Design the sequence.
């Protein structure tokens, strides 16, 4: 299966040797997106809702660069520093998607790539 790398200058550059996304003939995959401000590269201030909104905006930018959109998201994998934030992230997701919501897996992890980050999300979307 052939794929094409997806890059955009509308999100912070990757922190390591990886691409922001990749697309096939029918799907787009994003790397794990953090709640970074595209202009500063730093984690946005505020709590989990602010960070979740920024994370989904970063996903939107990668998907749109590939020719897709948030409306075409099939699956999300959400990494949270604390499962106590699950309900707040769910509220932000309801701002972005109505029924049917994308499939989702949420995992609590002890650390993320940026010390101030409370959330990281990767997505799979249709083209």
Sequence:
């Amino acid at each position: 299966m052939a794929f094409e790398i997806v890059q955009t200058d509308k999100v912070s550059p990757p922190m390591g040797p990886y691409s922001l996304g990749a697309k096939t003939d029918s799907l787009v995959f994003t790397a794990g997106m953090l709640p970074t401000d595209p202009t500063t590269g730093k984690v946005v201030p505020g709590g989990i809702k602010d960070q979740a909104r920024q994370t989904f905006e970063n996903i939107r930018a990668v998907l749109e660069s590939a020719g897709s959109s948030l409306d075409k998201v099939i699956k999300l994998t959400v990494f949270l520093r604390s499962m106590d934030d699950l309900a707040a992230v769910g509220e932000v997701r309801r701002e972005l998607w109505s029924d049917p919501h994308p499939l989702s897996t949420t995992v609590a992890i002890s650390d993320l790539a940026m010390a101030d980050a409370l959330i990281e999300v990767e997505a799979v979307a249709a083209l």
Q: What stands out?
A: The first strand starts at residue 4 and ends at 6. The CA atoms of residues 78 and 121 lie 5 Å apart.
